[in-house]
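Supplementary notes for students who missed Thursday's class. We covered one full example, reproduced here. Read the sequence, then the structure, then the short commentary at the end.
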Amino acid sequence: CTTGISIITIAAATNSKDFYYKKTTTVGSPVTLTATDVSSQGDNLSFANGIKAVTVNIAPPDRLDITAGPATVTTVNCSLYTVTTKDSDGIPSNVTLTSDVNLTDASNGGFYSDAACITPLSGSKISIPVSTNSSSFYYKKTTAGSITLTAADAPSQGDILSLANGAKSVTIAEAPPDRLAITAGLAAINIGVCNVYTVTSRN
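Structure (token representation):
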């Protein structure tokens, strides 16, 4: 299914010709394939159309993909990301059993279950429920740098899937300053003594 066609030819003294069909999206009702006579050979034949209803099913998932979430964040952001199971054509495909997914970043960031990034995910793991194809998590890293978020299959529920890892590159930038702080200097001083203090901008 590499070279697209819209016309086939049934050779003389034969009665059939094969073609290949592929659809990478699904619809709610069957696809109708139609064969229409477009002969230009003066054969004086007029064929009624041939039709066939074909239901397009989604293939089983074979990979994980981090499908939503920003590629650039700051050190104060708590960012939402989504992991999706997909088939070989990249179409979201439901799991038939609950599937666990391990999350890593090869760094010191944190994975959380809430939008404030307060509650860590137990074991840095999320679960994709049966008959669905996605689950989300929150991520925060308080130091700047470039990291790769990785979602890896953790088949601990008796499922027979072996899903390829999903990955997403994320750049964490220092957040701009939004406040001042007096960060150095004595808290108790003697009368008449000149003391030094430091004002620092912070995010």
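Commentary. The mean pLDDT is 86. The first strand starts at residue 31 and ends at 35. If anything here is unclear, bring it to office hours.
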